[in-house]
Structures are given as C-alpha cells and as structure tokens.
Specification:
The structure is a homotetramer of 215-residue chains. With 215 residues, chain A is mainly α. Chain A has ten helices and no strands. The structure holds a DNA duplex (21 and 21 nucleotides).
DNA sequence: TATGAATGAGCCTTCATTCAT
DNA sequence: GATGAATGAAGGCTCATTCAT
C-alpha cells in the first residue's frame, strides 16, 4: 500500500476524472485503470479497495482546502477582505481542479457514510473560518451583531457551492473566481435597499441558541 | 405502463424511501419491490426500468414544486413577502417530504444526465420566480437595482439547499420551515452594517451580461 | 433460498460431482452451473454462497449416514452381526454414492473449519455406534474386555475409510460392499495366530483413561 | 532451479507450514514468501511453480518415509517386532513433523492428480513392507496364513492414518508414538475373544486374487 | 541472485430484466 | 394484471507469474 508515489497520484487523478464523468457508483475499476494507464490489479497495490480511493481523495482534499482557506483568511486585514479572500480561494481552487470539484460536490451527499469524517472536518473548519470573520467584523463594526453564525455559514457555503455547481453544469466556460466579488457584495449588503430594510424585522427569533446549535 | 394508479404511487413512494436510504445506484429493484409489497416483476408494469423511476420522480417533483412555488409567490403582496413565502414553501415542502428531499438533493448532481431535463426546468422556474420578485421589489424600491438575477437566484437557491442538507444530515430534528424568516432577513439585509457598507463597492462588474447569461 | 426443491437437488448433485473431480477449492461456480444445466446466478437462489454448498452437503450426508448406520446396527443380533452390518452399510452407501464419498473423504480435512460441526457429529455418532457394539459383545463374551473404545473406533473407521479411498483411486471397479466380510474378520480375529498371540502383551497401558479421552 | 540449497529448504519448510494452516489451494505465494523471509519472485528461482512446491514435498516425504520404514522393519527380529517398529516409526515421524503430517494427510486426496506418482510409490512401498512382515510371520507361525495382504495393508495404513488425523484435529496434545503398542495389539489379536472367534468365518472368499490385485 | 512492482486472467457474487405461469 | 424463478452480463477483487532493476 505505497502511498505518495507517482503512480499513486496518477491513479488518484485518473479516478477523480472518471468519478467526475460517471459518478462514483457507476465508475468501474477497469475504467480507472484504463484512464490511469495501468492494469486493474495495480490499483490494489495503492488502494485498499474502490471505496478507499474516494476516501483518500476526500482526506487529501479536506487537508488542502483547510490550508488554503485559513491562509486566505489570514491574509485579509478587514473582515470584508477576509471574506473576499475566502470566497475567492474557494472558487479559484475548484476552478483549478474542476474534476475534484465535481466529485467533491457530487458525492458528498451520496457517499455520506464513506466520507462522513472528512466532510465533518471540512464543515467544522468552514464554520470556524466564518466565525473568525464575523467576530472580527463585529469588532470592526462592519458586520451585524445579531447573527447566528451557523446560518451565516450555511448561507455562504450554500451560495458558493451553488455557484460552483452552476459553473460545472454549464460547461465550465466562464471565470469562476471572478464571481467572488459580486458574491461578497451580496453577502454583505443583501439584496434590499437601505430604505426598504426598515420594514424587515431584525428577526427576533425566540430560540437563537437552539438554531445556533445545529451546525 | 399504467401510470397514476394506486400501485404506481405505491411503488414510486417506496422507491423514494429506498433511494433516500441507500442512494439511487446502490438501491435494487428487489428492495423497492419489497418496500412496496409487490413482486419484482410488477415494477416493470409501471416503469420502463430502474432509471425511469428516478426520472418519473423528478418530473413529478418538478411539477409539484413549480406549482407550490408560484402559488406561494402569488400569495405575497410585497417583494419581501413573496420571497418569504417562497422560502417558506420550499422548506415546508421538503420538511413534509423528507425522503423526496433527500433524493432530490442527493441525486441531482450524480444522475445529472438522467434528470437533466427536469432539473433545467426547475432551475429555470426558480430563476423566473426570483426574477418576478426582484422586478416587483425594484418597482417598490425595496430591492436594489444593481443586481444580476442569475447570481441572486444562486445565492438564494444555494443557501436554501444548504439549510435543507444540514437539516437532513443532522437527523431532521429541528423545524426546517422556521428557518425561512432568518434566511430572508439575511438575503435582504446582508450580514454587513449600514455604516460598514459604505466601503463595499457596488460591484461595477464589467461583464454583467456575460455573467447574467449563465443561468 | 428455497431448499428441498428439485432444482436444489439438481444443483447439489452437480456440485458434488464437480467437487469430486476437481476438489472444492478448484471448482468454480460456473462449472457447477454448467454441470447442473442452470445459469450461474441460479445457484445463488438455492445456496448462500459456494461454501454453503459444501456445508449443505455435509449436513445432509451426516444425517443420512447417521440414520443408515443406526438402522444397520439395530438390525444385527450379535455384536459381530452388528459390526458386519455397520461396515457393510458404510461401504454400500459410499459405493452407491461414489461422488459423495470422494468429496466426503477428501474435503473433510481441508475444509475442516467449514464442516467442523457435521464432522464432529459424524465422529461422535460413529463412536457411539462402536461403543454400543463393543458393550454388547463384551456382554456376550465375544468381544475382548480390555479395549479402549476410542482406539477401536479409529481402527475400524480408519480401515474402512482406507478401503473406500483405495476403491476410489483405483477407478471404482471392484465391489466395495463385498469387502465388509473380510474386513470384519480382520477386526475380530486380528492378523495373528492363536498360538502366536501368547507372546503379545495385552497392552497394560498406564493411562487408559487418558487415551480413551481423546476421541 | 538450484535445489538442495539452504534457501530451498527454507522455502520448502515455510511452504509446508503455510499449507498446513490454510490448505494448499488457499495458500498464496506471498504468504509462503513472507513466512520464508524472501521475496515472492525468489520462490520461482527454486520451484517451477506453486504446484511444484507440493510435488517436491511429496517426493522428499516419500523418500524419507520409505527409508525410515525399511530401516524400522529391518531392525525388528520377529514379525510382531517389525510391525511394532513400523507403526512406531510412522507415528514418531509424523509427530516430529506435524506440519508435514497435516499436509501429507490433507492434500493426498485433493491434489491426487498432482501427487499421484509419489503417493503410488508410497502405497507400493507400504504394501511391500507389510508383505515382508506377513511373510516372515507366516514362516514363524505367528501370522495367519489366510490373509489378503492388500487388505491387511489397508487395515493397518488406514488405522494409523486415522490415529494421526485424530491427533491433528485434537490439537496434537497427546503422545502420538505411544499409540503404537495398543494399535499393534489390536492388529495382531483383533477385538474378539478366542472363544467368540469360533463362529467367525475364516472368510473363504472366492476372489482372493482379484481383491489382492487392487493395491 | 534477489527483488517486488506490475500484470491480467479468472473467480465469486450481484442484480436489472425477462417471461412462463 | 401479478408473480418470482431464472438468466447472464458485469463488476470488484485476488493472486500466480513475469521481468526490469
């Protein structure tokens, strides 16, 4: 089970490409082997079984993503800068690894049991990052004080994911990273006008803690 | 191939329950037959093949969702009301049909080729709905004028999906529909403070049309 | 998992024939299916897996053998009659089921883990039968009193098995059951002459109980 | 294909140990290589293929057994002594080489085609040894004159094998060689009493030659 | 000589689909 | 219409064997 060799990378990359095209469950070892230019049996010298390929991918992806995201946030001075950096890093990473992006977005729900752990880590990391940004912004006075971070995380994460998914399903022909700026603008300002927002309740929810506890 | 009979519904419902638990690719006709209380062969009297079950589900779901969403929007007076009604209808529907929600959210990416058409319709419908709301809000002066509707649609759709996914993965133990209000608040107001937003560019993107064209 | 149907028997019989020719481990499901005239998949409607075929065979065999042997012994009046009946029943049964005999004799040692339980039962039954005969003979005064039944069982069982094995490996061209009489004669009289036996120690072993305890 | 080197022995010994634990068919070259502390490929420098390992083992075993058995018999003065020496040598040898014993006993039937030749030699040698002993005993007047040597060989060989098998399957925890004496006693005297044997026919079989010819 | 990475044929098993009843 | 036994193609995985180093 030699890992971190050239052939390991070669197979992993090929596998992700195949998974991206046919989905994990519909992909076969033979297809991966062919894509990687090795024999079927060779795959089992580097991966325990088919599931293991996906797990390895998620673990690596989680690590890479985590590093990139924290770097991005740390490089920002103001909360808004940090948010922008985060979104931009997210979009740029997935744009540079479109197959990885497709697999990551697609299999997360279906192979939940398999990749639960990396996904949980990723989710927690994302929440921590958002928490950091919100805290900073609240100190600066640029971010509202009455926010449930869990929901903000889902707002941002969900919107970014959807932008990525649209990019994937429309043939990846526009510049994904360029969406960072308008996205951040929407996150910060919302879609309402200042005057219109007077009528919008500041959502005095009863069970703030309960909701916050969810994620 | 009689559709719209009791047995048809019985099988479709059973299939969705099974798909929700094991994923489409990992579900077998036998499991569905057992869950539905019919023989394996009977399924082929109502569905062309396994794929057809999923396609039928997506088509029905799309139709139902479409009706509900337009109803919801039409019932709102102001743009904000309409948006709230839309989000609430979305969350409430998926809360009342958790298995359908799981399948819908999970298989959309993976079975893309299979369900492309209903998904496109759904996406277009969602965009139309959002367009209507935004138009109305802009007339009212409650929604900003400088918005790219495609991106707003992805913001809202993505955030709602993420809220639903979190609900699914945390055991469906909190009230999903109750998230409508805080979500709408975030969409309208954003997470920034009025004063802080002075420094945020109104995103004078060059390629508005290009981006808008995407979805 | 329908058992006791015609097709079940058909497959089991075919499997034993194949196992007899190539050995269990070297036999393939496809070979069995072909021999039985069914599709590969059909086998799995009647057997859990390949191992299960062998286990089923051993369980059935053990039951049949057990019944036949007790019947045979019960039909004998004197101990010598009973022993003859036992040996004859054993040889006749295996002669009538040569493939079963080959598999039974051949796989017992190698698939020990798999068929441990039926083999233990069979071994215990054999020992019980021998015990019964020896007891009866000792009462009659026709069987020596200084015997360790466990060893007698191994003597008889081993000799009969070897006779069967020789029959198998020499092409099954002589009458196996006819060997019962000379075999019993050897068991009873031994190979020595009455006068020569004066010099043979009656084996006053120290640890009779210990040895007896073995089987 | 250098044979008789240290490494050759090392691999052969390891192979027998592995075969004893998992059976020949279930053992892999990798397991043997690991047990022997060499690389997989190295095995093919000393053995033609996997089958060849078993064949080599049987050939060596046959030679060793043959030498030991003849030595044992030659060392005996009377026929009974010789028989005792033979049985004792057999049991002692297998007790000292339990893995060899397990493999020898277990694979003989299953790998018949593979090891037919050594087995035939072994069987012939055993028959020759028994013939010698019987001849000598008949001259001495200590062995009955009306014996079919082939059957006597099967009686003795089968009983000894069964004793060995029982020893193997009961965890090899009793002294195998010590069974020689009671076994010989049973062979010589039989299990009947002198008086009871009056009624036992001296088996005047018609087809003595036919039966004798078998092995 | 020795190694062990690579190969690919072959096996067990699953399961969508068919069809005789 | 309804059944479920039967099919057989296809997939994951193993492992004996080879060969470049």
């Amino acid at each position: 089970m030699k890992r971190n060799t050239d052939k390991y990378q070669q197979i992993l990359t090929a596998a992700i490409r195949v998974f991206a095209h046919r989905g994990f469950s519909q992909s076969t070892i033979s297809q991966i082997a062919q894509e990687a230019g090795v024999a079927d049996g060779t795959i089992y010298l580097y991966f325990k079984n088919k599931d293991d390929i996906l797990v390895q991918f998620y673990e690596r992806m989680t690590e890479i993503v985590s590093n990139r995201f924290w770097e991005a946030v740390n490089a920002g001075k103001t909360a808004v800068d940090q948010l922008y950096n985060l979104i931009h890093a997210h979009l740029a990473l997935f744009q540079s690894e479109p197959f990885g992006a497709i697999v990551y977005q697609g299999e997360t729900h279906l192979q939940w049991r398999l990749v639960q752990e990396p996904i949980r880590q990723m989710s927690k990391m994302y929440r921590d990052v958002i928490t950091r940004i919100v805290d900073q912004g609240q100190k600066e006075g640029t971010i509202r004080g009455d926010l449930y971070v869990g929901l903000v995380k889902r707002l941002i994460n969900g919107a970014v994911d959807e932008v990525i998914n649209t990019w994937i399903h429309t043939g990846r022909d526009h510049d994904l990273a360029a969406m960072a700026e308008p996205l951040v603008n929407l996150f910060i300002q919302g879609i309402g006008t200042p005057q219109g927002q007077k009528g919008v309740s500041p959502t005095p929810l009863k069970s703030i803690n309960e909701i916050n506890a969810v994620t």
